[in-house]
Amino acid sequence: MARDLEQQIALGRLLPGDRLPSERTLAAQLGLSRNTVTAAYRLLEKREAIRRVPQRGAFVRPAGPIENPIDWSSRISRQAHLLDEPVLDMLAQSRLTNLRYRLSAGTPALGCFPMGPFRRALHDVLNKEGVQTLAIAPTEGQPRLRRAIAAWDGAESSHVLVVAGAQEGIDLLARCLVEPGDRVIVDRPTYPGAIQAFQAAGAQLVEWDTKEWSAKALERLLIASRPKLIFTMPTFHNPTARTMEEDQRTKLLNLAARYRVPVIENDVYSRTRLQGSIPPSLYRMDKHNIVIYLSTFSKVLAPGLRVGWIAAPPHMVKQLSLVKMRASLFTEGLLQLTLATLLENGIFEEHLPRLQRTHAALQKIAVDALRLNFAGDELEFSVPQGGLYIWCRWRRPIDMEAVLLEAQQKGASVAPGRAFFAGAPDENCFRICFTACSERDLPDAIRLLADAFHAAGDPSDR
């Protein structure tokens, strides 16, 4: 009998945690004496196949060595497995410790960070507010920072929700607004973090081409897909650095109002303008209360600060804060209050022109290096008027995976184009962050990248 039970366990018919029949019940079922069943259970317990618990019964024990009792890979949820796509980690290149030049990054020139004023503001907050900086604060964010952002950005403080960077804001909006099966219109291409956040919420993504941001194309998508929302980045778009014209913005807002589809405007780069002028944000142009605005300090101060904000109707702020509470019940104090000080005393506004001058110089170096190291018939790119990126396309057939690997081995990384497409990708595209290196290092970084392309070669020549 003990052998029969062991076989049932080995075949998977009895699983770890399954409760076995009581000794009395099993004896009656098999027509055996209760003593026989008791002896079998004792033997199985001795062999560590089952465990008997007083007043509860006998249970099948998991197999395997006691020093490694849990196979964690088997415990991962199906939803988590669906998101097992290393796109964001790939862009950050956080696991590649030998990289000298991280052209894949999305960071401003950190040498411009106002370290002295920031340090003084930090000390000022500690001296004046002390223990209060460590106390519990509302999930919506420090009230003083919400007021400072509202005054600086032309909003009401009750409309502002502080988040840990734009990525958390996108994730909160996706979890709050999207049901499984909903369709969401996104730019083609678009930010990979948005793709993952909306897909995690169960959305089906519909792409709207940024080459034209055509109103006619958008209306066709609205009619055909009946989307839950539109997610767009109209100013110095990531990754292309394109900017939507004002008349295109007006048409977008009119269509969204007509079809009653809310718009999420991801506006994280408008304050990185290098030249020319830019249209007003969709949020400022909105006359129908259909736009939710998202921005961050990561692209103009430092990504490590992890502070961004959402501007939305107060009801949405309340709902988003309830979603946020599931992961973060209270908000951080010291950094938020320090940023509030920088906004209040004008330091942040003084910082922006210095940052723009530095970025302009870096962009010129990057453009000159691209033109020097790549032939005109090899690479196409445009010179943007703002943002942190140059979006490039290799004109010839090539194994982009081989290029990326070769570049990494040489010590440089770029963001591969395939990461930015919700649908069929353009494999020949890639994104360079020209603000991630110093003026001294940037030419060498792009030279190494060109070497990687040329080393990979053209498959048609092989």
Summary tags:
462 residues; alpha/beta; Arc Repressor Mutant, subunit A; Aspartate Aminotransferase, domain 1; Aspartate Aminotransferase, domain 2; seven-stranded mixed beta sheet; four-stranded antiparallel beta sheet; 17 helices
Low-confidence spans? none
Strand order across the biggest sheet?
4-10-9-8-7-5-6
Structural class: alpha/beta
Q: Give the overall silhouette.
A: globular
- How would a textbook summarize the main sheet? 7 strands, mixed
CATH architectural name of the largest domain? 3-Layer(aba) Sandwich
CATH C-level class of the largest domain is Alpha Beta
Query: Whole-Å distance between the termini?
Result: 68 Å
As for the number of domains, it is: 3
The helix fraction, in percent, is 40-55%
How many helical stretches?
17
What is the average per-residue confidence, as pLDDT, rounded to a whole number? Answer: 89
